[in-house]
Amino acid sequence: MTAYILLALFWGIYYSLHTLLASLAFKNKIRSKMGTAYPWYRLLYSLFSAVGLLAILVYGAMIEKRILLANTDFTTYLAYMFAAFGTIIIVKSMKHFSLSSFVGLKPHDDLEERPEFVRKGMHAYVRHPLYAGLLLIFLGFFFFDPVLASLIHLICLIIYLPMGIYFEEKKLIQLYGKSYTQYKKEVPALFPRKFRG
């Protein structure tokens, strides 16, 4: 059981650092220390996110498996369906962004170069399509490998999302002001109210 507690703890640390490192206050402090190297901060942040995510998933896979559901054709179908929908949502939500800037391969000062406020495409239906897609992928992962570690991955994400959204939107309101406040009133965070024709 200790391994599963550690898994949940690792997720807590990962999500806390993920939120802290993306905050405007932290970025301003880092920029004052990094100086002209700051445009590379986004790439370092992306590498940390990717390596941290992979490390936690590998650790979860190494834990002795406690099976929660029988693996059937139906659960496998659900796994692929949820993962596919999640991937499609993430890919479509990135359509209006520069992937090289988002990941940090194109160095830039994201405190000076404010990204465009996007509310078209997937962002017309939900404010956080990346989170929505990730939630579906984690759900699909659970059905693909229905063990306790997979359930902990999913539960930790579900617990984090309201907090992650709260802090991210606090930052977005600082950046875009009333435009984002109005957007919040009109568009739900994760689950679309309706699909436009």
Summarize the structure.
It is found in: Endomembrane system. The chain crosses the membrane at residues 6-26, 38-62, 74-91, 124-144, 150-167. By secondary structure, this protein is an all-alpha fold.
Layout of helices and strands, plus pairs?
Elements: H1 2-22, H2 24-34, H3 41-62, H4 73-93, H5 99-103, H6 129-144, H7 148-176, H8 178-186
Helix pairs in contact: 1-3, 1-7, 4-6, 6-7, 7-8
Please describe the biggest sheet, giving its number of strands, its sense, and whether it closes into a barrel. Answer: none
Number of strands: 0
Strand content: under 5%
Distance between the termini: 49 Å
What is the 3D form?
globular
If you compute it from the alpha carbons, what radius of gyration comes out, rounded to the nearest whole angstrom?
A: 18 Å
CATH topology: Four Helix Bundle (Hemerythrin (Met), subunit A)
Count of domains: 1
Query: Which structural class matches the secondary elements?
Result: mainly alpha
Mean pLDDT over the residues: 93
Helix and strand sequence: HHHHHHHH
Name of the CATH architecture: Up-down Bundle
CATH C-level class is Mainly Alpha
As a percent range, the share of helical residues equals 55-70%
Low-confidence stretches: none
Number of helices: 8
